[in-house]
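Action item from last meeting closed. Structure (322 res):
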């Protein structure tokens, strides 16, 4: 089976997730999939990898971003400045990142999940101290929707990348599939060492509603499986040589996690925050948000199975076993 002329670029991040990947496609135009985080360490790693491959930052002609998290798009402004590269960004992720009300809406969702206000304020203070989330603010990006095709030419032949909207980890996440080589640039939708967190977010269609992130993610995994990719390039970790097997194990993981959380319910109403504390007793800071996201996402499935009922009291949502 043919393979794309692609190089993995690994960069450090200051986050618990560890290093992040970008991918250099050595073709015309010279293309970068994702762009790391805006730190000196990530920038040095990117530049060194480009030089090792015989390129310079000025060589980059286009950057294609999978989703709007700062460890995946942080260097786009600097790359644009030195190269004039065109940056393509999922349209729905632009809305999410640039919407000033988004963080307020997420805060409301966390309060509704039972998170104490003092902890929410502490998390917000930590977020404000993170300098890495503003790279998209002033950058010129071209919004892309599902179905956008990128044409690439190389000594190995002509290739195409098809943009596919696959929500889950975020609501506007996109993956990029090359049909000739059956190669998938999966972003954070498929990871070799962990399951992507189905993040708690407002719906992009109706900000007053909550996105059912895990339900979306499981549908996306089924669509991803139907692509029958032979190799997947993830946002974190090693290249995935058997994407189908990983998709199957990821679905099984969430099925087991759903059973575990269902077993924590009783006839007494409990908030998602209380359940998250029980499940992840050592979580602190941003990890509290991740743990609440994880619990709520699986509670959606449990309610769909009629194994839990939902009640609300004083603005907080509670779940109890049926």
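Sequence:
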């Amino acid at each position: 089976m043919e393979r794309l002329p692609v190089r993995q670029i690994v960069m450090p991040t200051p986050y618990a997730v560890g290093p992040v990947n970008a991918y250099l496609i050595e073709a015309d135009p010279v293309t970068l999939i994702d762009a790391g985080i805006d730190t000196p360490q990530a920038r040095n790693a990117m530049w060194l990898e480009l030089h090792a491959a015989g390129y310079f930052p000025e060589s980059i002609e286009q950057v294609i971003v999978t989703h709007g998290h700062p460890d995946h798009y942080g260097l786009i402004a600097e790359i644009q400045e030195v190269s004039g590269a065109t940056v393509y960004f999922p349209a729905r992720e632009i809305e999410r990142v640039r919407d000033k009300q988004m963080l307020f809406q997420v805060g409301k969702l966390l309060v509704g999940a039972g998170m104490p206000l003092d902890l929410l304020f502490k998390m917000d203070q930590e977020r404000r101290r993170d300098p890495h989330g503003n790279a998209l603010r002033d950058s010129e990006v071209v919004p892309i929707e599902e179905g956008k095709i990128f044409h690439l030419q190389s000594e190995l032949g002509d290739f195409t990348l098809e943009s596919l909207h696959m929500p889950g980890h975020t609501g506007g996440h996109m993956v990029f599939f090359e049909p000739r080589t059956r190669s998938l640039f999966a972003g954070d939708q498929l990871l070799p060492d962990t399951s992507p967190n189905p993040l708690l977010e407002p719906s992009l269609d109706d900000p007053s509603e909550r996105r059912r992130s895990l339900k979306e993610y499981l549908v996306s995994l089924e669509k991803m499986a139907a692509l029958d990719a032979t190799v997947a390039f993830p946002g974190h970790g090693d290249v995935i040589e058997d994407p189908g097997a990983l998709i199957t194990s990821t679905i099984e993981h969430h099925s087991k996690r759903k059973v575990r959380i269902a077993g924590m319910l009783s006839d007494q109403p409990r908030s998602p925050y209380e359940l998250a504390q029980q499940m992840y007793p050592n979580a602190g800071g941003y990890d509290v948000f991740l743990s609440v996201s994880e619990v709520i996402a699986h509670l959606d499935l449990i309610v769909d199975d009629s194994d839990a009922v939902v009640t609300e009291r004083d603005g907080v949502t509670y779940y109890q076993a049926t």
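Note appended to the action item: Residues 20 and 63 are 16 Å apart (CA to CA).
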